Amino acid sequence: MDEFISGGNSTVPKTNDSAKNTKYQKRNVYIWDMDETLILLKSLLNGMYAEVFNGLKDVQKGVEIGKMWERHILQVCDEYFFYEQIENCNNPSLDALSQYDDGRDLSDYDFNLDGFSSSYDDINKRKLAYRHRVIAQKYKKGLHSLFDQDMIKLWDDLYDVTDNYTDRWLSSARACLEQCSGGNKELTPCIDSADTKFQHINVLVTSGSLIPSL
User: Fold this and answer.
1) Domain assignment present for 206
2) CA–CA distance from 150 to each of 14, 66, 144, 153 (Å)?
3) Is the residue at 190 inside a domain?
4) Which of 8, 9, 60, 180 has the greatest number of CB atoms lying within 10 Å of its CB?
């Protein structure tokens, strides 16, 4: 029986002789605005978050929390994500220049001596693609693979302080994301014995620079 895969605005049939049932793949795409939605930063730094509460929140405390986030984020970006080198080379995603990456083994590559500059020619695009590849690999492993216990505690404490100050804003956003990214959901078929599967895709968008936003 034919298996139908929904793609774009059309439904494309794909023959699968071994399939016994018709399966319909449905895709739920959630687009999340990170800026002052999933995370808070700018409104902490400029005091606007606290001002909304008409004196119930300590404005200066919020500003100090925002400054701590800003300082630690930039420190991580500089130390692990080449931010000092690529700050002026913003791209929409880490795979935006993947076509320039020739797959070279980077285990012995010296990123401080490769002559990279912000000039947007093909040579520098390849060097930038190398950096994006390394950043993606580190990001996939998680910051726990980079930080020692003291640094992990520092970030955990900052998260808790921020969550308490914002009445669990971060925890609520995280719980919502986890619920929406809970994998494929099997639903009771509505026609005959067909299976309906849902795939959940989360897309994060931001007006900020790529590397600090990660």
Assistant:
1) yes
2) 53, 20, 11, 5
3) yes
4) 180
